[in-house]
Structure formats: C-alpha cells, structure tokens
C-alpha cells in the first residue's frame, strides 16, 4: 500500500537527517514522502479545512512510529530514535515495516559499524584540529630553546581559519523565477492566474534560500499556486504537490508574507 511506503519514507527521511546531524520539520518530512509516493485520485480529495484525505491518513499513521518508540515529535522538529534507526535499516520496504508495526516484533539491532557512525556535524567537529593539551607547558618549559616555541605558534594559527571553509554549504539549486499565481493578482493591478506577470514574482533571499513575496490584500479568501519559471509547465499546490490542489488562505486584510521553499516545494504564510 502507498501509505505503508510513505511511512517507510518518513522513517528513512528522519534517518537521513540524523546522519547529517540535522533536525527535520514534520511538514517537510511528510512532503518528501508524498512526493516519493503521490496520492491517487481518492487520496487527493480535499476534506474539510482543505487537507487532502491522503495527507491526513499519513499524519495519523505516523503515530504508529511514535507508539513503537521509533520517532519523537516536538516543537523543535521530528527526530528518529536508535530503535528507529535500527528499524529503518532492518525493514527494506513499506510492507515489511507495516508488518513489524502490526506484530510488535523486536527490531533487529543495528550492525556495529552503523552504531559507530557519527552524524556529519559531530564527525566534522571531531576532525577539527585541536591545540595539544600540554602546549602551554611546552612554551613555559622551553624558554631555553626559543626557536622551537616560535615555530610551533605559526603551525597552530591556521587551524581555526579552516573551520568555516569546512562548514560552508553550497546553495540549493534554484529555478530562475517563482511566481504565486492566483486570484489576488487583480488586486495588485495584474491579471489573475497569470504566472508571467511581474506583480506576483517572488524574490530569492540568499540568506535562507527562500523565495519571498509580501503584498497588501483586502479581507477575503484567496487561492494560488507556486508557478516555476513564469509558466504552468511546472507548478506546485498544497503540501508541495506538483499539479496539486490550490493553496487557500482566509485573510483578515492587510499585509501578508508568502515564503516558498524549493526544497519542499511548499508555500508558507506569515
């Protein structure tokens, strides 16, 4: 079943985040799972509140992972446990994962090499050069040999300068343009649902790799999608689904800020 495969994708996504030393947001993990295993026609039907039937079913199903002790959910994001890491490695597909959850059978332990593997962030920290603990003692005891002390200092100095270079991450590949095409463009002096008009083009913020648009809208209900490169050829609707249902907001009036994340293909409202 697709929902079992999506549940497996959720667990694997959290395992990947753990190995990279990061924390994943629940909405991002769900969006990736749904992208990997798209909804069928029935699952894509919108329930009250505009939530697809399949999205609600998957969200509910993740409670099984929590009950099994494989993941935890908190304000800081979703995290995988050691038991969950073992489950991710032990069960290769959604069917075997679902069977294990249903039976409550013990999860085979992780191989020794997997237990020893450190998250990327921790590994980087372990590799950073450190000044020897006895360095001050050497300097004090070597007063009679100043050339040795003088040579040691330049060797240690470059080490801190190398750390930022190791931590710097490349920018995420981005499209040339992102537009929020919807039924509010007329308020901005353009035609509704036209992804090429300038009034609905978003701007990329390089600091957080988010596309942003702030507009002032009167009170009302609005629908829109994220259209890529000023065309409908590639577009994303609710929950980051390609060619998915419209995003919808009920706005009280005034400024509203939209953020589009090309990593999740989803839009958030602030």
TrEMBL record:
Residues 110-169 are annotated as: Disordered. Residues 178-266 form the Amylopullulanase X25 domain. InterPro entries: Ig-like_fold (IPR013783), X25_BaPul-like (IPR054409). Residues 121-169 have a biased composition (Low complexity). This is Amylopullulanase X25 domain-containing protein.
